[in-house]
């Protein structure tokens, strides 16, 4: 016997579109989860959604045989900019298969290890900047972590130096990308007729896509002008053939994937580092243990590749950060056929989209206990992470459409966090600051500023 699925009050035509906050939509989804429980139904301008937020339901829909990644809402609109790049391609689109097979090895452990020197180079630019600015300088970590991660993906994957640390403001790509993603989110909850008459907004949207595309085209043109035999991602896309079909990527698909990597490859990781810094400052005991570990493993020496696997507490900090604040906080799937989930309790017709509210599901007390809202890296240590129920920690998505860049992001984040902790103590600019969010497609702390103080007796 299936149970009925609750739904908040709605209004004709718009459905629940007006119930979703414009600036931080995630806040509305979380509040509704608190009010209606592990599953509720929404109708956004005719799109029928179930929003789920328990670990059990998240596990139930994590099955590539029964559910597929659904391209609708904001994600479908992101296709306006990046087309059939890996992130926004439909499962059945041949270009997804070709790019996936070609690029998976480039994101394997061995290739990522080769990127260590370039990752370290950029992490050192960041520590140098904070050192030179000194303890009085008010740092905007989200901004500088964006410089770091944007430059890192461009250098490691495309051997292209953006030199963001040598610019006053941010690279034009960054603002255009943020505005483009915000507008994708807004459009998804706005009637098409209204969007069609918003002439200025639409012109800006097109302009933002152009700004982003120009950078991708410039990177490709630069490579054609100055070829290299480096086996980086760009060369693989330009010159390799799919082992299964023998096909190469088309020029337009290369551009789409380049753009995809420039976007997906930095936005989430800079959010991860910013949240990690916030949680550490708010948890002096965790900060003390992190400093202790870095001192023990690195001492006064610059981090080496072989240190990475030894930094277990730093690893646990990042895992716990991704649990509490998964920077890609929701993903969507659809069943291939009508199906029931939750031990047969909930009926999901095949024309419904299931939105996985990861940020709530990863705080499910049934898995994480009554203190599930608390930042406690210890829950990720000593085999506890490996012993978690399946799919209860899922910030990188699931299955065939899971994040291809996970090992890249992880290595990059460990290097940066360890290098920063080796040198600095951190304090809040405003001691009373409590976490606020900003959201484009991903989330980051908003209005979060810190000071970096040199650690006494450290190099
Ligand atoms: C897919 C999260 C870093 C490239 C995904 C998905 C998630 C995710 C949740 C699945 C989305 C869905 O199912 O709709 C993250 C997080 C990161 C991160 C939290 C950092 C902390 C990266 C990096 C890259 C990258 C560094 C590239 C270097 C991609 C791509 C996909 C993807 C290309 C699409 C894969 C496919 O569908 O074949 N990511 N990501 N991500 N990510 Fe990441």
Question: How would you describe this structure in keywords?
Answer:
18 helices, binds protoporphyrin IX containing FE, Bifunctional P-450:NADPH-P450 reductase
Describe what you observe in this structure.
With 459 residues, this protein is of the alpha+beta class. Strands 1-2-7-4-3 form a five-stranded mixed sheet. It has a two-stranded antiparallel sheet with strand order 5-6. The chain has a two-stranded antiparallel sheet with strand order 8-11. α3 runs antiparallel to α8, α7 packs across α13 and α10 crosses α12. It contains 18 helices and eleven strands. The structure holds protoporphyrin IX containing FE. The site of protoporphyrin IX containing FE has 25 residues, from α12, α13 and α18. It comes from Phanerochaete sordida.
Layout of helices and strands:
Elements: H1 25-36, E1 39-44, E2 47-52, H2 55-60, E3 67-69, H3 73-82, H4 94-103, H5 109-114, H6 116-133, H7 141-158, H8 172-188, H9 192-196, H10 199-225, H11 233-239, H12 251-264, H13 267-282, H14 284-298, H15 312-324, E4 330-335, E5 339-341, E6 346-348, E7 353-357, H16 358-361, H17 365-368, H18 406-423, E8 424-428, E9 437-439, E10 443-445, E11 450-454
Parallel strand pairs: 2-7
Antiparallel strand pairs: 1-2, 3-4, 4-7, 5-6, 8-11, 9-10
Helix pairs in contact: 3-8, 6-7, 6-18, 7-13, 8-10, 10-12, 13-15, 13-18, 14-15, 14-18
This protein binds protoporphyrin IX containing FE (HEM).
């Amino acid at each position: 016997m299936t149970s009925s699925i609750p739904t908040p009050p709605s209004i004709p035509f718009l459905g629940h579109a007006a119930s979703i906050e414009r600036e931080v939509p995630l806040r509305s989804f979380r509040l509704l989860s608190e009010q209606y429980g592990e599953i509720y139904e929404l109708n956004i301008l005719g799109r029928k959604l179930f929003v789920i937020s328990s670990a059990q339901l998240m596990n139930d829909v994590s099955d590539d045989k029964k559910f597929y990644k659904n391209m609708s809402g904001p994600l479908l609109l992101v296709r306006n900019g990046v087309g059939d790049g890996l992130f926004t391609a439909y499962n059945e689109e041949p270009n997804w298969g070709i790019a996936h097979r070609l690029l998976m090895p480039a994101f394997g452990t061995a290739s990522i290890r080769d990127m260590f020197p370039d990752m370290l180079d950029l992490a050192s630019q960041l520590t140098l900047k904070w050192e030179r600015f000194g303890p009085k300088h008010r740092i905007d970590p989200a901004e500088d972590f964006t410089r770091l991660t944007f430059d890192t993906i461009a250098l490691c994957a495309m051997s292209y130096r953006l030199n963001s640390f040598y610019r006053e403001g941010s690279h034009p790509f960054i603002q255009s990308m943020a505005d483009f993603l915000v507008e994708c989110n807004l459009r998804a909850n706005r009637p098409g007729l209204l969007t069609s008459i918003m002439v200025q907004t639409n012109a800006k949207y097109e302009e933002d896509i152009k700004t982003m595309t120009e950078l991708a085209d410039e990177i490709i043109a630069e490579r054609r002008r100055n070829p290299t035999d480096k086996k980086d991602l760009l060369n693989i896309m330009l010159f390799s053939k799919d082992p299964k079909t023998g096909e190469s990527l088309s020029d337009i698909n290369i551009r789409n994937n380049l753009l995809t990597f420039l976007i997906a490859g930095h936005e989430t990781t800079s959010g991860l580092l910013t949240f990690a810094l916030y949680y550490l400052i708010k948890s002096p005991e965790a900060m003390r243990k992190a400093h202790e570990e870095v001192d023990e493993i690195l001492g006064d020496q610059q981090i080496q590749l072989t240190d990475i696997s030894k930094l277990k507490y730093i690893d646990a900090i990042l895992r716990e950060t991704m649990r509490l604040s998964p920077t890609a906080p929701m993903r969507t799937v659809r069943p291939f056929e009508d199906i029931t989930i939750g031990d047969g309790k909930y009926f999901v017709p095949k024309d419904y989209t299931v939105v996985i509210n990861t940020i709530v599901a990863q705080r499910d007390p049934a898995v994480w206990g009554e203190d599930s809202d608390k930042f406690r890296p210890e829950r990720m240590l000593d085999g506890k992470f490996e012993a978690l129920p399946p799919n209860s920690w899922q910030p990188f998505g699931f299955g065939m459409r899971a994040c291809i860049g996970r090992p890249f992001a992880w290595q990059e984040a460990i290097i940066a966090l360890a290098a920063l902790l080796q040198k600095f103590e951190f304090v809040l600019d405003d001691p009373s600051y409590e976490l606020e969010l900003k959201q484009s497609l991903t989330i980051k702390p908003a209005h979060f500023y810190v000071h970096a103080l040199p650690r006494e007796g450290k190099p």
